[in-house]
Amino acid sequence: MTVHSSRQRRKDARPQELLEAALALFVEKGFAATRSEEVAQRAGVSKGTLYLYYPSKEELLKAVVRSTLALEVAEGARLLDEHQGTSTEALLGPLVDWWIRVYNSPSSGVFKLLLTEMCNFPELAEFYAQEVLEPGMGVMGRLLMMGVARGEFRPMDIEMAAHSIAMPFVMMCVHKHSLGACGFKDIQPEVFMRAHMHLLLSGFQGPGPTGAGQQADSKAT
User: Do residues 44 and 72 both lie within one domain?
Assistant: First the structure.
């Protein structure tokens, strides 16, 4: 019974072990340069076992994205959708906390992987847009529109504002796994992310009916 339970636990853990091995290799070597047998070897299983769970390298990559970055985006969207305070408070609190968690997790490597491989794999670009980009931009857009509707933010181009929030954070993750991995000193991610958000908010904020945006900003500092 004990042996059976141990084997069952090992079998149940295999998909996650394979995904972790694939993510590490894809980020280190690139998707195209990584061979399926290398993933299997790092995970400690046979190539046949890998194909049993993930029939192709493309399906393996999609599973990696779904289990890391797409899952994180869904959780970030849930946190922001459930936020009961002002949009300013959401941007300075839950959103920055979420980005810091992603930066410090293996999921941050997916940004580098996708940005360096998408041009060679058009299907991957479409997958990234559907699973990561559109949901992430959508929830930030709704948050900004709520701020504008309440008079907390001035009228703005919502799509461009959402990209202004996200792009520097994405580049921080790319830097971590490119120049940062080569020994170049990275700036402190939490300090940068909070400073960046304060800088954007100085341009976003309108007078507000009760000054809620400015009050939240002063509390956060």
Answer: no
Cα(124)–Cα(118) distance, integer angstroms: 6
| CATH label of the domain that carries residue 35 | 1.10.10.60
The H-assigned helical ranges of the chain are 2-29, 36-43, 47-53, 57-65, 71-81, 87-90, 96-103, 108-117, 122-128, 134-149, 158-176, 189-204, 212-220
**3-class SS at 44?**
coil
Count of domains for the chain = 2
Count of residues in the chain: 221
List the domain range (segments joined by +) for residue 12.
1-55
pTM here?
A: 0.78
Token reading at 98: 């979420």
The full DSSP string for 95-122 is IHHHHHHHHTSTTHHHHHHHHHHGGG-H
pLDDT tens per residue across span 157-211: 999 999 999 999 999 998 888 877 677 776 788 899 999 999 999 999 866 554 4
Residue 32 in any domain: the answer is yes
How crowded is residue 29: how many other Cβ atoms within 10 Å of its Cβ? 12
Q: What are phi and psi of 31, to 5 degrees?
A: -65, -50
DSSP 153: B
